[in-house]
């Protein structure tokens, strides 16, 4: 592992880092030599570092490797990298662009570690490569400027950890890969501008607080998610603009916990669309939505072929 490399000066603040030496903390532009295969914590808290060029011999980036590099603006991670540690780029507050490894063959990076980009408040866009199977807990928490998350159509992603996109205030839409089976607690907590979500086909559970505080979400369309089994309490709490819900046709009753859609705001649900299903599927429907002002005062319109059984 590289401790800090020997340095050949190209300019006053531009350095090439070799295996086994040192580099000055005032360096702004750094190139990693091919003799280095793993990056340790040597660059963390490098307040002057603006740009770093990684050689394609690098295979690992350790925990906190570039954490708190407050002036780092971009990073291209070569395809040779197969492991990136915990919080490796956390709190890089000037980071606007990241290229993740996407090799066509050989060993591949398959998961994004916990807190890897947490607090990268200037990051605006991220493309998740096909081979990524897991996005761990709080990977992008506090990426306040993040507007776009790209997943390829053939994405291997099957797990997104708790709070992975929490407080991504400018995220407007998300198309989740079909192999994701659970949206876990706080995944999109306080994504205030999130207005469109395409849910996975294989989705089974929407957990506690997963979309809480998504103030811009108006329509919840779950018709694609025919494996859905459960929506937990507070999953969509304080989604104050939510007016319409489209439920999927499932083989078994969906367990929708009380307060799953709780809101204290005046603007509340106006309609629930559901497929042609037995009336026993939604026995506690009135209780689920009793905290919505419009329901309390004027009732709620249930749109579907079996609506007569649900009139309040």
Quick structural overview:
The chain has a four-stranded mixed sheet, with no helix packed on it. Strands 16-18-20-22 form a four-stranded parallel sheet, with no helix packed on it. A four-stranded parallel sheet has the order 19-21-23-24, with no helix packed on it. The chain has helices at 285-288, 293-298; strands spanning 7-11, 14-17, 29-32, 38-39, 51-53, 60-61, 74-76, 83-84, 97-99, 111-112, 125-127, 134-135, 148-150, 159-160, 173-175, 182-183, 196-198, 205-206, 219-221, 230-231, 244-246, 255-256, 271-273, 301-303.
Describe the 3D structure.
The structure is a single chain. This protein has 312 residues and is mainly beta. It has a domain at 172-312: Leucine-rich repeat, LRR (right-handed beta-alpha superhelix) (Alpha-Beta Horseshoe). 3% of the residues lie in helices and 21% in strands. The protein has two helices and 24 strands. The protein has helices at residues 285-288, 293-298, and strands spanning 7-11, 14-17, 29-32, 38-39, 51-53, 60-61, 74-76, 83-84, 97-99, 111-112, 125-127, 134-135, 148-150, 159-160, 173-175, 182-183, 196-198, 205-206, 219-221, 230-231, 244-246, 255-256, 271-273, 301-303. Strands 1-2-3-5 form a four-stranded mixed β-sheet, with no helix packed on it. The longest helix is centred in the last third of the chain and has 6 residues, at 293-298. It is elongated, with a radius of gyration of 23 Å. The termini are far apart.
